[in-house]
Design a protein that fits this description.
Layout lengths: L4 H7 L13 E8 L6 H7 L7 E7 L9 E6 L7 H15 L4 E5 L3 H5 L3 E3 L2 H7 L18 H14 L1 E8 L1 H16 L5 E6 L17 H22 L3 E6 L6 H10 L3 E2 L2 H6 L4 H17 L5 E6 L2 H4 L1 H22 L3 H11 L2 H9 L2 H7 L16 H18 L9 E6 L1 H4 L5 H19 L5 E6 L9 E6 L4 E6 L2 E6 L9 H15 L15 H4 L4 H6 L3
Parallel strand pairs: 3-4, 3-6, 6-7, 7-12, 8-10, 8-11, 9-10
Antiparallel strand pairs: 1-2, 2-13, 4-5, 12-13, 14-15
Helix pairs in contact: 3-5, 3-19, 8-9, 9-20, 11-17, 13-15, 14-15
The structure holds 1,6-di-O-phosphono-beta-D-fructofuranose.
Length: 547
């Protein structure tokens, strides 16, 4: 494999670990926990893994432990730092007993079910330390939810002598990890299951999970390129750039990038929903900012749009919910409808209110809403070209205003979608350290016999020495939600809080950023250099922690 100079230098980086993980550890148990909502139902569904205590690791006495075999799965979308979770896990189990072995299941949860695996030796691990991507074993979106899959998985775990499985994934994958942990505990299979919080979207977080890994690096990559676009935009002064940012549900990425680059406009889906805004309200809001800047002689600007926006516009959300339910139950019938008749067919099946909204959508958007779901039943929002939809609608509105004499400027747009560019970036120092610690912590949870836990590393705005490592029962994060037309126990998604410090800071500045040109150009992630340049966490995390 040919390597870049940075790759070679970066391979030698030694991720920082919390002080408590540097030698032998002991697990300190906190009080019993309960789920965030629907306690009775969740307790009934998880009799073996409900109510367990929060775990915190502290320095302890060295104990001789037998060698263990551990399996690891990367699940869902890529996020910078996955390889460091695996190297932390590897180093963790080796620190417990040098004969321990790590097996990786290939291409996500499907690898477990299909018995597709490889042993991850020290040599392989060393090739991937501090690198981006999930290519060490690949990732996939197969949903692990059926007992046949669990049993098929158990066959290979038993064959390889694996007594613990680590699932690195987002909220859906960790929900499945918990269901699997419960099932293996109920069957007394002797296999522990531990989750690790991954997703660039940043929406798997709570009191005990400060952030999901990958969010830090991905936002820094997007902010770098948005900054570059802003400088181009401020040099040519002739384009409005409509920039869609990944984040299929929550707007954390858009908000963090806005805090980093100070764009002219940033839409936050959660606010759109709270204010019950229609698509036309969003378009009018953007068009007004364009008109206001034009009045100052500025016919250029930047607009950040979260990927999941359409699902947060209440009327669209109701439509999508009905479409999800309908398509979940009628997928077979729908697949036989000719493409040219699909729109008519769907319109006839929907309730009157939703049919009217559906009929009003441009052809392309309407079609995208009925395309294949992902295995979790979600609309594939990354396929909806919201940046083009909005800029076209803004252009139409401005043309009307021009005819009425309310707009005298020029409007010319460019479109961008940043998502895949950031998901496999070389992890920032923050993600490199955080991920390594998450993996190492998972090893310690396994050593302490835990199952149904998520690896948790907290206090991460302080120096790594002071980070707090431990575990949090996954059932604690659960509530009941409607999925595929049925009520299911799932981890509650963390959306942008409108009363939280990150949003409030943005809201207090946005009118100023809209009118005057006050762009910030963050530049590329730095891996070597002064700590204030290399080790900064996200603004979101700093603000959430009152820093
Ligand atoms: P995860 O939630 O699995 O981490 O994936 C997040 C994400 O990057 C979203 O931001 C995006 O909508 C989606 O994955 C794209 O999925 P795919 O890689 O399947 O195109």
């Amino acid at each position: 494999m040919t390597k870049s100079a940075l790759q070679i230098a970066r391979a030698a980086y030694q991720p920082k670990l919390p002080k408590a993980l540097k030698g032998a550890v002991k697990a300190v148990e906190g009080a019993a926990t309960q789920s965030v909502a629907d306690q009775e139902e969740i307790k009934k569904l998880f009799p073996n893994t409900y109510g367990m205590p929060i775990i915190k690791f502290e320095s302890g006495d060295a104990v001789e432990l037998p060698a263990i075999n551990v399996g690891v799965i990367l699940s869902g979308g890529q996020a910078p730092g996955g390889h460091n979770v695996i190297s932390g896990l590897f180093d963790g189990i080796k620190s417990l007993n040098g004969d321990s072995k790590l097996y990786g299941f290939i291409l996500g949860p499907g690898g477990l079910v299909d018995h597709n695996y490889m042993e991850l030796t020290g040599e392989i691990i060393d090739e991937y330390r501090n690198t981006g991507g999930f290519d060490i074993i690949g990732s996939g979106r197969t949903k692990l939810e059926k007992e046949e899959q669990f049993d098929k998985g158990y066959e290979i775990l038993k064959q390889l002598g694996i007594s613990a499985l680590v699932i690195i994934g987002g909220d859906d994958s960790n929900t499945n990890a918990c269901v699997l942990a419960e099932y293996y505990a109920a069957q007394k299979y002797g296999v522990q299951v531990i989750g690790c919080p991954k997703t660039i979207d940043g929406d798997l977080k709570n009191e005990m999970i400060e952030t999901s890994f990958g969010f830090d690096t991905a936002c820094k990559v997007y902010s770098e390129v948005i900054g570059n676009i802003q400088r181009d935009c401020n040099s040519a002064r002739k384009y409005w750039h409509f920039i869609k940012l990944m984040g299929r549900s929550a707007s954390h990425i858009a908000l963090e990038c806005a805090l980093q680059v100070q764009p002219n406009v940033c839409i936050i889906s959660e606010e759109v929903e709270a204010k019950d805004m229609s698509l036309d309200d969003v378009v009018t809001y953007i068009a007004q900012k364009v008109a206001d800047r034009a009045a100052e002689g500025h016919n250029f600007g930047t607009v950040l749009i979260p990927e999941g926006l359409v699902e947060f516009i209440p009327a669209m959300k109701r439509l999508i919910a009905e479409l999800n339910d309908f398509l979940a139950h009628n997928a077979e019938e729908f697949s036989h409808i000719k493409k040219s008749h699909q729109r008519d067919y769907i319109t006839k099946k929907l309730s009157a209110e939703n049919a009217a909204v559906y009929a009003s959508l441009p052809e392309g958007v309407a079609r995208q809403l009925t395309l294949d779901r992902d295995p979790h039943g979600n609309v594939q929002v990354s396929l909806i070209e919201t940046e083009k939809l909005l800029s076209e609608m803004v252009a139409t509105k401005l043309a009307t205003w021009q005819a009425e004499g309310k707009f005298t400027g020029k409007f010319s747009s460019q479109h961008h979608f940043f998502g895949y560019e950031g998901r496999c970036a070389a992890p920032s120092n923050y993600d490199a350290d955080y991920c390594y610690s998450l993996g190492y912590t998972a090893a310690m949870l396994i050593a302490n016999g835990k199952t149904g836990y998520m690896s948790s590393v907290r206090n991460t705005t302080a120096p790594a020495e002071e980070w707090i490592a431990g575990g949090v029962p996954i059932t604690m994060m659960m509530n009941m939600e409607r999925r595929h037309g049925e009520m299911k126990p799932v981890i509650q998604k963390a959306l942008v809080k409108l009363d939280g410090a990150p949003f409030k800071t943005f809201a207090s500045k946005r009118d100023q950023w809209a009118l005057i040109t006050d762009y910030v150009y963050p530049g590329p992630i730095q891996y070597f250099g002064p700590t204030e340049v290399c080790d900064q966490p996200t603004k979101t995390l700093l603000l959430e922690q009152g820093k």
